[in-house]
Amino acid sequence: MTKLLRLAGLAIVLVVSLLFAVFVGDQGPWYFAWVIGTVMIILISGAGAIMLDAQSGLSADGEI
Amino acid sequence: MEFINPDVVDLSRFQFALTALYHFMFVPLTLGLTFMLAAMETVYVVTGRQIYKDMAQFWGKLFGINFAIGVATGITMEFEFGTNWSMYSHFFGDMFGTPLAIEGLMAFFMESTFVGLMFFGWDRLSKQAHLAITYLVALGSNLSALWILIANAGMNMPEGAHFDPETMRMQFESFVNLVFNPDAQAKFVHTSVAGYVSAAMFVMGISAFYLLRGQHRQFAARSFRMAALFGIISTVAVITLGDVLGRLDYEKQPTKIAAIEGLWHTSNPPFEPWIVAALPDDARQENHYEIGVPLVLTPLITHTFDQPITGMHELEEAAGPRIRSGIDAVAALRRYGVTHSSTDLAQFTAHEQDMGYGLLATRHAPGQDVTAIPADQIDDVVRATQPDILPNVFVTFWSFRLMVFLSLWFFALFAISAYLSLKRRLERSRLLLKLCMWSIPLPILATEFGWITAEAGRQPWTVFGWLPTFLSASSHGVSYMVFSLIGFVLLYSVFIAAELYLMFKFARLGPEHDSMEPHAPATPQASAFDMRPMAS
Fold it and tell me: Distances in Å between the alpha carbon of B45 and those of A9, B209, B409?
């Protein structure tokens, strides 16, 4: 039941996101770009930090 | 009787500029740090590594200092519209008040409610719930900026309203046009992402300070890398949106773009140079000591190689018929206020789009009444009014250039920093680390120059093309304005001093919890690469 509810919740989020993308992408392309761009910036900076963890794990000299 | 006191108008302008610029020393950090905190906390939730929680909590503390002091400086500005700009508020309040009210009720309440949960909810909420709260704080602070910038865009490119001769004010007609105003869209993204740049430089600069001192190295390395990547993408986005705004100004605010470029005469495409530096002389309407790069201006502004950009002399000439038509509009409106006859209304409607230019002539009309200009003096009044359509070219030209030069510096600094961080060669580059540290205030300075460009370039209007600034102010006495101005300067200077003191104090102290360096401080050699297992 919990899984079903979670799936339903995710489906609603998906539909709202698609409607948002269609409407705002058409009416306010820069607003849409801000949403996508901010998510991208967060993900890339987060990925950079995780990569540093991986680099640190492989290296022994400790240089930063 | 003359009702415009130029001293009061200038003091009102100076006071608003001062309070706005003070306030905007705090805003960019709030806009950007919230999303940086969200990024750090996201990594914490995904990886379970304690160090990212330490990072979110430490940078969150510095955000909290900035937020608490910054909020206080913003509230006074909303009151200034009523106290110092009552004519503007009457004329444009219907349009301007809507986004301001939504900002208070929706974004500011959202941000302020969740910020408490963000600070005090670490031990009371699940990791995922706290992360959601952090995102809501980030969204709230940026939505707050969105509504303010929608209101500001209405002043620069009034859309979604029309002038009503019955009420003598702009009436709100389309919420969609207000929200999706192209200027609001581009300005919001430009400003919001400029906040990301400020926050990235702040985090990168303080992390560089720790790396230079060999303290909290793992903490600083991760903060530095996240900030460098955050900053480089954000800087590219800011420059892109700056270009979009320039293009919009070219289409909708030709006087602003001509002043920004110091373009006194219509450009000669495609060879017209982009003026890198010059001394614009507003009085003589020419530039001194110009240094330009040929073939750059036309594609930069028009995105073509053959479209000319109208110069300020030509814009002045083109304004002549509009001023004359505007004088007719004001006269017809005055008559309509008394007679309410359809003939007067029809005459007004025929000249309505030029009404603002008629109001602009007020200063040069006998008794400051454009309806009282004798027929044989109209040409003189029009000629005297024509130069008034231009903003202060020296201020607009240089504030724009300083903003652009600084943004190019940020691009270079973030790019090199990100590269060296990815290559793990940061600690060898002590000069770069010092440059990062000393560059902390520069993005905030750049955003201040950006606001000066946007708002000084909008002059002589509060509502572009509709309401001149000198007709927008309240009728206070000079002594009242001087007294309140001194009060604001003293109070806000105390706020700035408190912010700087607390920021320096807590930044020097460093993170309270550093899971990878519990016995800091240490020398670079002693603490080099402490890779004990990280707590989850």
Answer: 21, 27, 34
**Position B215, amino acid:** Q
Question: Least CB-CB distance to A45: which of B39, B217, B424?
Answer: B39
pLDDT of B532 higher than 50: no
**pLDDT, tens digit, 9 for 90 and up, residues B34-70:** 999 999 999 999 999 999 999 999 999 999 999 988 8
Q: Structural domain of residue B174, as residue ranges?
A: 6-255+390-509
Taking residues B186-192, report their average pLDDT.
95
Question: What pLDDT sits at residue B535?
Answer: 39
Residue A64 and residue B427: Cβ atoms within 8 Å?
yes
B199/B73 same-domain check:
yes
Nearest CB neighbour to A33, from listed B42, B189, B226: B189
Per-domain residue ranges of chain A: 2-58
The single residue listed with the structure tokens 């300070």 is: B209
Hey, are the CB atoms on B189 and A49 less than 8 Å from each other?
A: no
Which chain B residue lies closest to A35 (C-alpha atoms)? B189
CB contact (8 A) between residue B226 and residue A49: yes
- Per-residue pLDDT of B238-294, as tens digits, reads 999 999 999 999 999 999 999 999 999 999 998 899 999 999 999 999 999 999 999
In one-letter notation, the amino acid at residue A49 is A
Residue B55's pLDDT is what? 94
Q: B379 in a domain, yes or no?
A: no
Amino acid (1-letter code) at residue A11? A
Residue B346's nearest CA partner among B332, B357, B358 is B332
Task: Test B226 with A30 for CB contact under 8 angstroms.
Answer: no
Q: Count up the domains in chain B and report the number.
A: 2
- Please report the pLDDT score of residue A1 as a whole number: 81
Q: How far is A58 from chain B (nearest CA, A)?
A: 11
Instruction: Tell me: pLDDT of B470 over 90.
Output: yes
Q: What is the DSSP string of B514-530?
A: -TT-TT----TTTTTT-
- The reply to whether B77 and B215 lie within a common domain is yes
